[in-house]
Each structure stands twice: as structure tokens, then as C-alpha cells.
Amino acid sequence: MDxxxxxxxxxxxxxxxxxxxxxxxxxxQLGELLYAAHMAASCxxxxxxxxxxxxxxxxHYPRVFDCLNDWNQQWAGAAGALIITxxxxxxxxxxxxxxxxxxxxxxxTSQMSLRAVAMGLAxxxxxxxxxxxxxxxxxxxxxxxPVTALAIGYPGDPNNLPxxxxxxxxxxxDRRPLSDVWFGGDWxxxx
Length: 191
Fold this sequence. Notes:
Layout: H1 3-13, H2 27-38, E1 49-55, H3 61-65, H4 70-76, E2 81-88, H5 101-118, E3 122-126, H6 131-138, E4 144-153, H7 163-170
Antiparallel strand pairs: 1-2, 2-4, 3-4
Helix pairs in contact: 2-5
């Protein structure tokens, strides 16, 4: 398979699963995912991202799990690993505010997600977590911001999910048409 076909396939296969198997994730697998994130582009090459990682075998896994909101705790505990993404809010080179830190963490997470697909894994980003708990549980400094949580694991059986979550897992993948997001000239003017 050529590179272009391989990349298109990874993009098409990426999905935010909620149903995971109980199969373990190893530190080596996390290392592969973090390497992909590590190689992402960032403003001034600041690489503002940091990742608080826990596999189910790690003693601090319950502290990461504790940061998730109740909704996400219903399903994310089946994932083999959990991560809290964190970002430096100021540039290291001059201490000025970095207004691009969320974008940069998003790029790193995206690359991690695509690498996960290539490894037969899935990454589910979650906005539903308590950043104050993450800050407290992991002593995150004030000049860093908890951005999101990630559940990582092997895709599992959607029938193991609570019924109210099952339909989003098994239904068709819904994306906005490109014409709704691709503008030229003026806002909402089709390209």
C-alpha cells in the first residue's frame, strides 16, 4: 500500500470508540503513541504538550480515573490506559502567553490517534473531566493547563455499553458536509 492510501485509510478508520476490551496496554505501546504525539508540529516548536499517563497496571491509574466525570467513568474504565493532556500556557523562550497551546495539543493528540489506529488501538478524547482534580491529583503547576482526557484501548463489543451510549457506537459515522466547513472569500461563502 502506498503512503497516500495508507494515510487515507488511517484517517477513515479513526473513530472515538467507547467500547473497549479488557486487553492491557503496555508502556511500550504508550511509548509508540507518545512518540507520534512528540513529532507533531507546534508554534515556534515549543511542544507545549505534556501527558499524564496510566495503564491499568500503574498504581496511579485510580487518580487519573478519578479526574473523569461520572458519564465518562461509566465506560472509560474498560480502556487499557488513560491520559490527561496538559499544556504550557506560556512560551518557554520568553514567558509570553501562548494562545496556540490548545491547537498544538490537538495536533499532538491527532497524531497519537492515527498511530493508535495503525496499531489496532483506539483513542477517545474526552472533554468530560475535572481539570481542578487533575491539577490537584498530579500537582500541575499554574502555568500549565489540563486540556483533555484520553481513553486508549482495543475496540470492544458495543453491547457491553449502557444502552444510552450504544447507539452512538453502532450508528453511522456522521460528519458535516465539507461545504459547511470549507469557505472562500467570506464567512460561509462556499469555496
